[in-house]
């Protein structure tokens, strides 16, 4: 008789647990979705610059790209493009890899109506790709967008018309070489990594001369971009 009541209590407890689980399933499901989802929606409240926005009171830094800083060529154009495209609109944020940078900004790819805005910024010449933490699922698309930008020769992809643009080369990660048969005035020419770090030249480089530059690109991606004094692209080199 004792075993009978013990079994009855056991079945009662099991049934009670099942009822509690069923009643709370939707709650548990929402917790699982919050913890394991890799995207969510948000409304854009403010555009800080070409690759940083505020949405739902959270600062969002666009993944995979870098746009010009304040005072640099195309800074305003990149910002204005975002203002026209996504300001006051609901976007989808997709998270890939690290979700926060050292400034506590959320890292994400930004989508509007299934369009990857990060990729559009590169294709329209308002940004270069920036693989700070290595490549991800969208890296190839970003590289293809850069190639389209170069084909169209627009904005950041506009090629330099300087007479030395066809014969100056990046000789290594630390130097450039003048392969022209004449001297080249490269005052205010700039060499830059994928990120913010850059080096400004301030001299004339003679024919055949190699000129070193001091630029640490260890945390600035694997590409160097050389631009003339007008901000137009002389060349870029992958390492």
Task: Characterise this structure.
The protein has two domains: 39-156, Beta Barrel (OB fold (Dihydrolipoamide Acetyltransferase, E2P)), CATH 2.40.50.90; 159-238, Immunoglobulin-like. Mean pLDDT is 88; it is low at 2-7 and 25-36. A hairpin with a 2-residue loop joins strand 6 and strand 7. It has helices at 2-23, 25-36, 75-85, 117-123, 139-152, and strands at residues 39-49, 52-55, 58-62, 65-66, 90-94, 106-112, 115-116, 128-129, 168-172, 175-178, 184-185, 190-192, 198-200, 204-205, 210-212, 223-227, 233-238. The protein is built from five helices and 17 strands. Strands 1-2-3-6-5 form a five-stranded mixed β-barrel. Strands 13-12-16-17 form a four-stranded antiparallel β-sheet, with no helix packed on it. The longest helix has 22 residues, at 2-23. It has 239 residues and is α+β, with helices and mostly antiparallel strands. Helix 4 (117-123) packs parallel to helix 5.
């Amino acid at each position: 008789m004792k075993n009978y009541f013990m079994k009855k209590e056991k079945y009662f407890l099991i049934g009670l647990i099942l009822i509690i689980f069923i009643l709370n399933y939707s709650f548990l499901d929402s917790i699982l979705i919050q913890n394991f989802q890799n995207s969510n929606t948000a409304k854009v409240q403010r555009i800080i610059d070409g690759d940083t926005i505020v949405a739902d009171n959270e600062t969002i830094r666009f993944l995979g790209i870098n746009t010009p800083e304040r005072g640099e060529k195309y800074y305003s154009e990149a910002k204005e493009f975002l203002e026209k495209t996504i300001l006051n609109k609901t976007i989808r944020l997709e998270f890939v890899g690290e979700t926060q940078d050292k400034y506590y900004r959320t890292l994400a790819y930004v989508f509007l109506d299934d369009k990857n805005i990060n990729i559009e910024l590169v294709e329209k010449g308002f940004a270069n790709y920036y693989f700070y933490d290595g490549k991800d699922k969208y890296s190839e698309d970003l590289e293809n967008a850069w190639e389209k930008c170069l084909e169209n020769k627009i904005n950041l992809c506009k090629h330099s018309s300087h007479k030395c643009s066809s014969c100056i080369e990046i000789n290594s990660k630390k130097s450039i070489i003048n392969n022209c048969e004449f001297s080249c005035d490269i005052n205010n020419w700039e060499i830059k990594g994928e990120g913010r770090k850059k080096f400004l030249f301030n001299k004339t480089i003679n024919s055949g001369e190699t000129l070193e530059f001091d630029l640490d690109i260890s945390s600035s991606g694997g590409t160097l971009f050389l631009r003339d004094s007008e901000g137009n692209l002389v060349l870029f080199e992958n390492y």
